[in-house]
Amino acid sequence: MNDTMSRYRTMIGHRLFWPAAVLFVMLAANTIYRPGFLSIELKDGHLYGTPIDILRLSAPLILVALGMTLVISTGGIDLSVGSLCAISGAIACMYISKQPDQNSLGVVVTALAMALGVSLVLGAWNGVLVAVIGIQPIIATLILMVAGRGLAQLITEGQIITINSEPYRAIGLGHALTLPLAIFIALAAALLVAAFTRRTALGMIIESVGGNAMASRLAGIRSGRVIFLVYVISAACAAVAGFMMTANVSSADGNAAGLWVELDAILAVVIGGTSLAGGRFFLSGTIIGALIIQTLTTTVYAMDISPQTSLLFKAVVVIAVCLIQAPAFRARFSRRRRNAPPPATIVDKPKEQVPA
Amino acid sequence: MTTGTLTAGRTRFRLPRKQIPVLATLALLLVMYGIGVSQYTAFSNVQVIFNVFIDNGFLLVVAVGMTFVILTGGIDLSVGSVVAMTAMVSAALLQDGMPAALVLVIALLIGPTLGFLMGCVIHFFEIQPFIVTLAGMFFARGMCTFISGASIPITDGFWTSMSQERIGNPQGNFVSISVLVAFVVVVIAAYTLAYTRLGRNVYAIGGNPQSALLMGLPVGRTRIAVYTISGLCSAIGGILLSFYTLSGAPLIAVGMELDVIAAVVIGGTVLTGGAGYVFGTVLGVLVLGVIQTLITFDGSLNSWWTKIVIGGLLFAFILLQRLIGIRYK
Question: So where does this one cross the membrane (chain B) (predicted)?
Fold first, then answer.
């Protein structure tokens, strides 16, 4: 019995427990509200259903949040990802729309390469501002966040660029092995990042820089380069997410593409248990966080509540998850429990054991 | 008395370096105004300046509140949404036929309450201001659409008279009530920061919260106070905006927090806290206003140039603060 108790304790204490529990509760609530929620059906060799939709729509957010996780684990923050999504989507769509044959694979690949290149340059700009000039990350990336929207509108000349390109559309809506292609892209990115950070020393180096940049520099780590690198990675992730967002609707809108995605991404990272102070990061937590946010959005749509009102629910979830994870809140809570008179705990114990 | 002379002596010693950002903003403002006057004859009309104030009065009030928060090293992302929520609530209540005075009181209470709650969460549970105010932003914006999905017009007599009241001289130049309210807020804020205990505490916490705590300053109370002040300023800003537009719309003032932060930074306040002036914030708001006016006067430039120019200015001013050696973390 003690064993079950301690196992229960370790499970509760596990960093993924609360995010996973929240996700599970939301899915369960949805299924109760709408019994068909979890059903998946096979049509024309493709799987369809709400869970698949949630996975597909969360792909861009997962990508952005992956990059954001690395940036946040160095103690930084990247506010410019939303603007970068808009810029990369705008460049790709603009180039494709100017070509005579929009369906040619070569054109699409060139467009993607160009947009990715520009995004990497912009990521490098962020990296230089933070790592070389030493500007506080929140401000350094605020510059590109404000100016980037302007740049995206400049590229699209304030218009919404509509394209008709099958290969490009496939990035957002295509299928592979009965599942949407976007899921595989996000999964591949997640595995790539996980492999590079957890199978090499890179992850630990990033965490050490986040823990104490000066100390890790004295220990022989080139902190500057690591910080520079994470901003470039974040920009690359944002660029691919931008392709997905624009491919979903086959058009690029400099104003609306990727709007607020930086906030959602930061939320996903924080819900996943990565501290904004840096020093530790959890990629699996981030992915669960992104799924929670997308499930919430889908739930609200399914319940016929206006998308703006969904922000109310988001606020509640954010505060709840942050409070549960905040050490100060936990300390207060457990202190109160410990302060309770001893008989109460004795009475409590058998109660818990009965169902076990 | 003694502390007064002591600080005066020290500021005289450090004066140039500390005030370079504010002076640079002032210089930039004068240069931009000069360009405007030399390019467009109508620009020299005093009314152009008054219009900048009329169009940006609410922004100015909100930016003053943000200055308090940023001076303590925090940030408040909820301001734009609180502005919208205040305007929305007043419009909805007025539509239901509530008397104007009561609506004014209720609307002015919502913002500070939300700010107070956010401050408490930030202080007692040690969650980053960024995340807490982000949740506040979501909450307030969600409340707006919860109240109504469409914009609500205001037809109340008090509101329309406040909106149409023009205070001017015989030459036909005028300002609106909003500008006067904004000025009063600026003066009170400047006095609070410069001459009261609260103001000293704000600077001390921004400089180094640990030292402030060890000195026995009320860190928690001050921190909660600045978010409450920011909430109050946002609420006043929301009322001014509803005077200006005579309606409450759920999607008004989206992204306003960025303009406000940009104005505060361009005004020379350091984002890690501890250094900056309300006067600088006023200049920062004016710079944004004059950029918009210049782009409107030009006519050939599109609205997105505003964003690019603001981004460029942000970069220039941050670089300047860096070069003259104001320390960033």
Answer: 20-42, 48-70, 100-125, 132-154, 174-194, 224-245, 278-297, 303-324
